[in-house]
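Re: Re: token formats

Sure, here are both.
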Amino acid sequence: MINKNVLKIIIIMLLLIIINVIASSNQIVNAASYSSDINGIDESKYPGYKDKINELKKIYPNIQVFYTGLDWNTVIENERVHSRNLVPKEYGEEWRCEICGDKTYDSGWYCASDSAVAYLMDPRVYLTNTGIFQFQKLDTSVRNFKYRCN
């Protein structure tokens, strides 16, 4: 049988671990935010974003950008796990993973190349008056449109 003092210490340690996990997860959530001010976008890090968002603001003046605070290279690296992202067999060889080649998954899908993942993850591809809606926060209307951006 476990000594009562040892049991108390274990419970206190578990509570401290839980509190630490909750506190650190709140910091991550607080790092992300919405803003209608795009002047703070660093053009050296995010070339072309401001121009595309300004064009969209002409159509949707209340658009807000969601800053995730995530590092682009880390996001791409995490998405590049082999067979996690697939492209249809109809796509050209440049879309296929250089390592997996012609290995197929799920009836003819190929593992996506690094450049295919980076291209499809790049929000600028979708910053059009119709493509933007795939990023719309579902509890908002077009008038109060919110856009997610890394």
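Second one below.
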Amino acid sequence: MIVLNLLCDRGHRFEGWFASGEAFRDQSQRRLVHCPQCQTSGISQLPSAPHVKRAATEVAIPEKATTPASAPAMVQLHQALVSMARKAENVGERFPEEARRIHYDEAPARSIRGVATQDETRDLLEEGIAVLPAPVPPEDELH
């Protein structure tokens, strides 16, 4: 998985996660990459070194997970995840299948959440299906 710094033709900067540089180029040529702010598909890669995440075990975990300055941001992030999870249909382990059905207009468009392996997530991203691995809040917070 690589993280690229991107720029839309209207000047918005954002990050994109792709299985490879080739996957980005392919998706960009097919107009599958869109700016999250204005939805334009005129996207270019900014000249910078991509960040590569090789394995979860290589991720450095800070000794102190939150600092006083980051605590409000963590609370906001948690609240946003709870809000999104509440609005999304839980499709469980059918997530990859259901994401494909939605992407290919075989099922109604809607927000879904569920479980996918790292390989399934990579395959979805390579197909141009936007998925975001994120922690799901405990079930008791979703009701």
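The two ends are 33 Å apart (CA to CA). The chain has two domains: 2-52, 83-143.
- S.
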